Amino acid sequence: MRLLLVEDDVMVASGIKLGLSNAGYAVDWVGSGERAEEVLRTEVFDAAIIDIGLPNMDGLELTRRLRRPEMASHHLPVLILTARDALHDRVQGLDLGADDYMIKPFELPELLARLRALLRRSQAATSAVLSFGPIELDTANRRASAQRNGQSVPIELGPREWTVMEYLLINAPKPASKDKLLQALTGWDKEITPNAVEVYISRLRGKLEPYGVALRSIRGFGYRLELRPTEGE
Q1: What's the CA gap between 128 and 134, in Å, rounded?
Q2: Where does the record place the Response regulatory domain (predicted)?
């Protein structure tokens, strides 16, 4: 999942970005509302975390503007951060288009939990568990597993494997775009090449095939989860 963090305090932003990155998210950071507005006109994100107390254009005004139809991600979920504990500020933020808010200081586990909830709602998921055939991804507890002979078998996934698997399950049975997967893995950090996506796909194939789930390459587009016929079918 690709996130946009809008925070003018470098130390606060660094801490949040590190925590989110360690949880498997691709995080792009900007320090002003003006820069965020510019980016959101052309680039697609899965969610935005916006501090209210930005210089010049504050987070409330940015939230209002990003809901405009011309924005590339005008439907993305928005979590606002605020040091203001006034009811008026919280209500105004929600009325302007924010989906949730957190008051500073906060603990990272709560931020991650609220973010997961927003992402589930934005994907129209009614459960914290994504599934395809025997494969299950518990997004609340960060656990992957497969059903075999009536038992749940854990599947070990690294952070980037988790990101790829989550996108595949959200899109299933439709294919997931390779370009979208690359953006979710890297954001603006270009240390991962397009070929690296194939590496993670290959690793996932090895982990899914024992449970009868195949990862099919769709030429020129991306990848799709498919159930393999069992013997005798």
Answers
A1: 16
A2: 2-119
DSSP letters for 146-162: EEETTEEEEE---HHHH
Report the alpha-carbon distance of residue 67 to residue 220 in Å, rounded.
32
Tokens of 55: 């210089």
Cβ within 8 Å of residue 125, ≥6 positions away: 170
Looking at 39-99, which runs of residues are DSSP E strands?
Answer: 47-51, 78-82
Judge contact between 52 and 58, C-beta under 8 A. yes
Q: Round to whole Å and give the CA distance between 22 and 20.
A: 5
* C-alpha torsion sign, points 27, 28, 33, 37: negative
Convert the pLDDT of each residue in 162-221 to its tens digit: 889 988 998 888 898 888 888 777 776 666 677 888 889 999 999 999 999 999 999 889
Query: Tokens representing 7?
Result: 């925070």
Residue with tokens 């507890």: 141
- Hey, what amino acid is at 45? F
pTM above 0.70, yes or no: no
Which spans in the chain are helix H?
A: 10-22, 33-40, 59-66, 87-95, 108-122, 159-171, 178-186, 194-208
Placement of tokens 């439709």 in the chain? 174
Question: What are the two backbone dihedrals, phi and then psi, of residue 152, each rounded to the nearest 5 degrees?
Answer: -95, 120
